[in-house]
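Support request, please re-run this one:
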Amino acid sequence: MAGQTNHALRGDYTNIRPDYTVDQDYRRYTAAEQDLWKRLYARQSVLVPQFACDEFIDVLNSLDFGLGIPHFDAINAKLFPATRWTLVAVPGLLPDDVFFTHLANRQFPVSVWLRKPEEFEYIVEPDIFHDFFGHVPLLFDPTFADYLEAYGEGGVKAKGLNALDYLARLYWYTVEFGLINTPKGLRAYGAGILSSAGELPYCIQSAKPNRIRFDLLRVMQSNYKIDTFQESYFVVENFRELFDATSPDFTPYYQELHRRPNLAAATVLDTDQLIKG
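Re-run finished. Output below.
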């Protein structure tokens, strides 16, 4: 997604179009990068059956991204008929307004570069593996896909209402680090979790983090950690809940949030409903 970082941006921004898109230029991927992709995929695919939601697992199995770095055009040929979304290649992190505009137009930005071998376990800035493995499968789910479009539309409006921090928290705790309650127990649907070998089992099995029943305003009050495993996760019952939560006009919500305190990531309120794994 859009974001801020204290280090120099990764990726080549020299040939971007006005909407920050670039060509994927598949020929530039080296044999070493293809091998690295396969190893990253193999590592995560072993964990996914135990910890990911069924909607993610079903699409991952049907597309089999493990054969090599995916061609965006080939995925779009399947994705657009399914949910009217397309993937667009971008050099890396995007300005907020550009990112929101893409989502509002059902275009999901995917970074074209892949991490270095020494970043196998952890990477600061999202690369193609995070963007593709973590995000793309749920773009095939119609309800989740509609949620992302509604989020993008809300982001375009939020920029003029001094409310981008609230939208960033919502994205973080749902699209990136969301949990869902299923008949099989808690499962992950957030891309930041699904693409992480360490956090995927941690978010379900560890006794350390809080797992809090999703509440829209509560989520948007909550700060988050970018350099550690999350101290709190928010749990939805289904993707329809996410879509319904983003349907109303957020303007009165922002007015209310401006009156509320920001909460530390580890905060548990008396009104929180804690979910057991």
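The first helix runs from residue 31 to 51. Confidence is low (pLDDT under 50) at residues 1-7.
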